[in-house]
Amino acid sequence: MIKNYCALLVCVFIICSNKLQAQVPAWAGGADYHNFSFGFHFQYISNDFKILRKTDWRNPYIDNSSGNAVTDSLNSISSNPSQGFAVGFLARLRITDNLELRTTPSLVFTDRALSYQYRTPLQNVDKQVHASMIELPLDLKIKSDRLGNFRAYILGGVKYSYGINAPKKNDDANLSPLDKMVNNKRSYASYEVGLGCDIYFDYFKFSPEIKVSNAFKDVLIAEDNPYSRPIDKLFLHTVVFTIYFE
Question: Quick one: pLDDT at residue 169?
């Protein structure tokens, strides 16, 4: 009789275990087992420039129209991190249990800053580059096996960015040299890498993530003004913290 009860308990345990294992992947709406799934995200963005200077970048700027120097010699050009935010959607294609292709179209609102320090401190100035962008990333996401309600992952891919508020040609043609801006190219491509984790709840999946992206090419529009002329190239560096809901 005892042996029969033990055998019954073992059978019940095996059946319950199998049912629980079958139920766990269904959490978050079973998103991991669907070939396609969708969601939305919020992003906090911090970006700055990597600056390549010309060999004569320290020289005072000479206004071509008057022939006079309108700035003193430069001591430094730097870029401090500037913040912004983005909102967007998530679309995911399942390839295997541990591999997926993902795109996260975003509407981005952010600033970029350049700081100019001159030999005459009264001429020191910060130039803001305001940017509203549409970004279209395409990433490959590699996931660990699921441990309970948790999965870690890494990702990498490319991103195309297009400015929706880029200045038009000659927008600042009537401004004085000291009022000119540093303009960036309207569109550019970047590579990005990151890591994050998937946390499973009953009806959705919550995924915090951090990633870094860098522009492939120079984003500076070369212009003859006191702030663009000393710079040879600008490369955009971005750090993004994202929260996904899927």
Answer: 55
